[in-house]
Request: fold
Amino acid sequence: MEAIDRAAKQFVLTVQEYSLFALRAVLNLFSPPIYWSDIVLQSDIIGVGSVVIVIFAGFFTGGVLAVQSAATLAAFGATAVTGQFVAKSMVCELGAVLTGIMVSGRNASSMASELGSMVVTEQIDAMRALGVDPMRKLVTPRITATVAMLFFLTIVADFFGILGGAVVTVFMNGQNGTQYFSMAYQHLNFHDILQGLVKPLIFGFIIATTGCFYGMRTTGGTQGVGRSTIQAVVFSSVLIIFVDLLISVLMVSL
Amino acid sequence: MNETLASPVHSAALAGEPVVEFRGVTVSFGGPPVLEEISFTVAPDETRILLGPAGVGKSVLLKTANGLVQPDTGSVALFGQTITGLPERQLFPVRARTGMVFQEGALFDSLTVRDNVAYQLIQEKVDDEEIDARVLEALRFVGLEQTFSLFPGSLSGGMRRRVAIARALINRPELLLYDSPTGGLDPVTSTTIIELVLKQRDVYKTPSLLVTHRLQDAFTMCTHRFDADKGAMTPLPEGETDHNTTFLMLNEGRMIFDGSLHELVNSKDKFVREFLE
Reply:
């Protein structure tokens, strides 16, 4: 019982610390100094650096969706709606979630390990001793860059997902390409696109805040860095899927 | 080295106040106290050597001195201003007046030696030409001009420590905090580092707080001076010691000694005797 009590208190404390950490990082955007060059540098690392994996993940996922859906839809004589199915799945759900998970694996881990290494080698303390706020210099630029870049990466994933579906539909299932794109285009409405573009903004925030939070509270040397990295990836991935569910429920009910 | 690395006029010194003052400071990190009821001062032009075995809270004390660690009770005054309880944002300008050398150097791995040493100047948006000149001058002071464009990863442990000293000195600090600057180094490199510390003490009179568990370094600091003409460290005449270099000793988070070298070697305290022997 005592162990449960302690674990519950620890959980509440962690949530409180995370919330304050994220709030401070965001508020830093509204007062100087803002490190624009660090935001651009992080955008390059997070955005440009993740483009290739996002293209591949999107393309293959779209292809898989087309393969699986065509088999099921054929039973009802509705293979013509493959384009609609793939486009809607990619834009509403999979584009954002897949990109979020991929970027989380790549960047939440790198943020946690980079900042964690800086903590254990006293580089963060050195930065503070030199009169520079590590939250402003390291955390806020990463959050800003991840939120902005995940938005565009999701659009890239959506595009290549629909393209992957088209390749499978045309070259493997022998269907008409014009029909595929026409169905995909006609059945996508503003609500779907809004849903697909709101999610990456929130997922980007989750990835960067989780990665930086676990990195900045690293203790216990190199072993601690490893632990922080694992925690950052696990929590950000689970949180992305959980928040995706909440947003989907909310937006479907609107 | 020219005048630009020299310490500026000490505002606290002019006011006749201690540069650092600890008043009954206790620090704990949610467990038993790491520091307990610590009180001492660092006067202008004074070098205080903090002795003690590993793990007694020496580094925590040093970090408390410039507000990197906040005490649970008691207060710390830096340059006459109480810094305890100040929000982090207000601490940055006070900290910027101090120079700190960390245990392992704490150089930024992703930056070149030039950018590491110039870190503070870059944040202050100082002109590039002036930055280069001042970095070269600071590197010349520690004898490492040739490392200007290198990354810390390609430097030896001693070189990293010397670059860290250059970084601490570049903004003309009014107080220097050295955290075990010779820890883990070979005797020759340790002597080079101690010579640099002496040079800063004797030529530029910057007050400092130096943490070490190496007695030989502490005694060298007391029994030697930096001869600016020879450009090297020379021993003081037999029986003479530097009266501005005094000692503190920590044990299990408590300050058990505060005094001169003479008082230290004649101390009756059991722990001090054991430590010296």
